[in-house]
Structure formats: structure tokens, C-alpha cells
Amino acid sequence: MNRNGPIALIFHTLFLGFLLAPILIVCVVAFTSQGYLSLPTEGLSLRWFKAIADNPEFVRAFRDSLVLGAISSTLAVGFSIPAALAIARHQFPGREAITALFLSPLMVPHIVLGIAFLRFFTQIGLGGTFAGLVLSHVVIILPFALRLILAASTGMDRSIENAAASLGATSWTTFRRVTLPLILPGVASGWVLAFINSFDEVTMTVFIASPETTTLPVRLFLYIQDNIDPLVAAVSAALIFMTVGAMLVLDRLYGLERLLVGRGQE
């Protein structure tokens, strides 16, 4: 069995350190007791985490981002499943063109999409609305969900579905009991990736959001234009802690490998 040599181990250590250093620095700065960004800090405090709870704008923006990400990701996955199954299973005229159309938002800069959506939603009366935010986010995150579900659908053995149909299962029962469990890792991965991109989106959202529908990234962007204090670091650290906590709970209850990769060989 091949083992990594000392040079490879050093490289991997430096690489991981390069990836984790910004996250660790943000978490350390968030606990500063000073009224400004400082590292090293003179003392540790939960002052800026308490400031998050005292700022209703950040709490509301976080709630809106969660709801927006959940709805947009669910809709994107709902559209991606039939599209991926049709593209993976059938050969029809325009198949490549349709695939390119679904993936085209990846090639358009988000600032261009933001201006286009702003003009379009203003003309149809959806400017500054939550519905407009949902529609625009579905467009930009659909390619992420589609690519993973398409990868899970391609090469899937259809003999299992045929066996279910031969035993009297209806099309809906076959999809629910056979097809969906087979592509579930792609569906779950696609939903998670779509949610992350929706939650983190700021370039396009800043053109569409209104004071009543401001997401957390947009609120942070507006805040740092006028303020330089550790509150932003505290918000970022809180998001990191919640993400790690959610992953640990999910892994404990269901298993991340089982959800994102599929059942292993028993």
C-alpha cells in the first residue's frame, strides 16, 4: 500500500492550514472585547455575539435568508428532478440545447442578471418583493441542483424500475419507492449546494432586495460600508458554528455519507 511521504504530508498540512486560517482568524476576532477589529486581542468576550441579538435587522435578515434559501432550493430541486430524468434517459431533438439553457445562468455574470431581473420585475410589478427574490434565486441555483441530480440519474440501471412495474407498481409508486431512493444522494447534494449558493448570494440580490426583503449577505454588505467593528466577524462566526453544529447533528441522526453518497455495501 502506498503511503504519503514527508513532502506530501507537509504539503497537505500547509494546504489545510491555508484553507482553515481565514475561518479560525474570523472566529478568534469575533470574541474580542475591543470595539474594533484586533488580533491579537487583549481579552475574550461575548460582547459582539450579544450585539447580534440586540440588532433586529440582522436577526430578520438571517430569518429571511433561511426561508429564501429553503424555498428556492426546494423549487430548484423540484424542477431539476424531471429535467434530469428526461435528459439522462431520452434522446430527442434539442436535448443539448435544453441542457445548455438550464445551465446557462452559470455563464452569465450575476451583476448582469441582477440588472436584468431588476428591470424585468419592475415592469411586471414584482420589484422589491419576496416572490421576485425567490424566482431570481431559483434561476441562478437551478444549474447546481441539475448537474448533481443529472450525474446521479445518468447510468442508473432501469431494470430495477422495470421489475417494479412488472410486479404491478404504478408509475408514481415506482418513482417514489425505486427511482427517488436511487437518486437521493444526488438530490440531497443538489439541495445542499443550491441552498448554500442561495444563502451566500449577494451580487445579484443587492439589486433586487428591498428594505423589507433584505438577506443576511446584503445586510452585512450594507453594514460594512459605514461600520468597522467585530459585529460582522461575530455574525460570520455564528454562521460557522451553526453550520458545524447542523452537520454534526445530521451526521449523528442520519449520516452524512449515507445522505450525500448513498448506502454503502453491507
Automatic annotation (TrEMBL):
Topology with regard to the membrane? Multi-pass membrane protein
Q: What is its main location?
A: membrane
Q: What PROSITE patterns does its record include?
A: ABC_TM1
Record has Transmembrane helix as a keyword: yes
Where does the source fall among the domains of life? Answer: Bacteria
- Where in this chain does the record put each ABC transmembrane type-1 domain? 62-250
Q: Name one Pfam family in it.
A: BPD_transp_1
Q: What subcellular compartments does it reside in?
A: Cell inner membrane; Cell membrane
Per the UniProt record, which residue ranges are transmembrane? 7-31, 66-88, 100-121, 127-150, 178-196, 231-250
Family, per the entry?
Answer: Belongs to the binding-protein-dependent transport system permease family.
Q: Which PANTHER family match?
A: INNER MEMBRANE ABC TRANSPORTER PERMEASE PROTEIN YDCV
In its UniProt entry, what is this protein called?
Answer: Spermidine/putrescine transport system permease protein
